[in-house]
């Protein structure tokens, strides 16, 4: 993850490098979430009603006192009409729609509470409808999303290593390495690592 220094980042200078990078990303993410709310003229109470998250959770996330979970960030993406890759691309401050994104420059975001690591593989571009993401779930990880960030989102889930259980609505699917599942997402989904060694998968996302 390539991150520049952020003035006022909460991690002390003698903290481990990973902790400093995480703190800086949290600070950038919090600032961007606050900007999006301000652009719409919403109070924390209004955003709480729209997202189903508490005012205290939203306030702490905007002030970078805590990092939102994947499920919480998904709700905010839904409210703001963004995929998670677009939001994280805005947080990283990409200069423009470059066609090539080197591996070392691909934004990585971690939900430390659930053991989920998400890498935005595709070069960000506001005018394109498709994007590619790499996901990693640690053994025992189980993440539920109550809604898609964009209704009708098309997803292709291709397991690269390990095994993954995916539930869309009331339908469950078990995917082993090499298996690929295609979905149009309208309601809740659940991703559960089904391998004691963890799972790594590619996720292709296409806007409707």
3D structure, described in words:
Helix 1 crosses helix 5 (84-92). The protein has a six-stranded antiparallel beta sheet, with helices on one face. Strands 4-9-6-7 form a four-stranded antiparallel beta sheet. It has five helices and ten strands. The protein is of the alpha+beta class and 208 residues long. Mean pLDDT is 86; it is low at 1-17.
- Give the overall form: globular
Q: Span from first to last CA?
A: 29 Å
Number of strands: 10
Q: What's the helical proportion of residues?
A: 25-40%
Number of contiguous helices: 5
Indicate the low-confidence ranges by residue numbers: 1-17
Q: Beta-strand level of the residues, as a percent range?
A: 25-35%
Q: Please tell me how large the radius of gyration is.
A: 17 Å
Order of helices and strands: HHHHHEEEEEEEEEE
**What's the pLDDT, averaged over the residues?**
86
Q: Main beta sheet, described?
A: 6 strands, antiparallel
Structural class: alpha+beta
Q: What strand order characterises the main sheet? A: 1-2-3-10-5-8
Fill in the keyword field for this structure:
29% strand, 5 helices, disordered N terminus, 29% helix, 4-stranded antiparallel beta sheet, 6-stranded antiparallel beta sheet, alpha+beta, 208 residues, 10 strands
């Amino acid at each position: 993850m390539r991150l520049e220094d952020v003035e006022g980042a909460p991690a002390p200078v003698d903290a481990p490098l990973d902790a400093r990078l995480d703190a800086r990303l949290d600070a950038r993410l919090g600032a961007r979430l606050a900007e999006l709310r301000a652009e719409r003229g919403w109070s924390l109470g209004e955003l709480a009603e729209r997202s189903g998250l508490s005012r205290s959770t939203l306030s702490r996330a905007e002030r970078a006192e805590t990092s939102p979970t994947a499920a919480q960030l998904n709700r905010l993406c839904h409210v703001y009409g963004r995929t998670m890759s677009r939001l994280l691309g805005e947080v990283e401050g990409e200069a423009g729609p470059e066609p090539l994104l080197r591996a070392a420059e691909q934004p990585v975001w971690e939900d430390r509470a659930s053991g989920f690591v998400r890498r935005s593989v595709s070069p960000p571009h506001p005018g394109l409808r498709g994007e590619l993401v790499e996901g990693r779930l640690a053994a025992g990880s189980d993440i539920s999303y109550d809604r898609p960030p964009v209704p009708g989102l098309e997803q292709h889930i291709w397991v690269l290593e390990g095994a993954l259980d995916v539930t869309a609505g009331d339908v469950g699917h078990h995917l082993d390495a090499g298996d690929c599942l295609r979905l149009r997402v309208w309601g809740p989904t659940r991703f559960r690592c089904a391998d004691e060694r963890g799972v790594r998968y590619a996720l292709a996302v296409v806007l409707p």
